[in-house]
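[Meeting: bench + compute handoff]

Bench side (C.D.) handed over the final construct sequence. Compute side (W.E.) agreed to return the predicted structure before the next meeting so the bench team could plan truncations. Sequence as handed over:
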Amino acid sequence: MRTVSRAFAATATLTLAFAFTGVVVAATPGTALASTCSRAYLPLPDPSCTPGAYNSSVTQSTINSTICVSGWTATVRPPTSYTNPLKAQGIIDYGYSDTNMSDYEEDHLVPLELGGAPRDPRNLWPEPYSGTKTASTKDGVETKLKNAVCSGRITLSSARSAIRSNWTTALAVTGIG
């Protein structure tokens, strides 16, 4: 996904969202990391298009008031009015032949439950629901990692690093298995 086009999609959404309230929002587009995204990495995103990003409010010292609080992710999850334009652009950028939006989850590479950046286009990509390892499969990995972080079995940093590198091996790499 071209970060500039995805940032434009996000900016356009913010502009529309605030147009009726009179609030002016300044958005800073990211740097273009690639002109197109490769599907060769599936079930992972193309790392040049979706490198991942962290929520600076979530640190090892804040996990008990953020990610380890039941329902916390709902307080930071962006609405579909924000993510759907990014998903539509991502489907184009990845060159998916299936363009049905409902066949993809606009997923956070570093999940919100591990303190991933909620609205950063570098952390969002259209993850297919089809294939052997899918968006639904990744959800279980995310939950297991968050539970291990919150119980003190692994650090936030190790969980983030493992899932950002390769979510399909993150449980084995962290020893959670």
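W.E. noted at the follow-up: The beta strands are 104-108, 124-128. C.D. will use this when planning the next construct.
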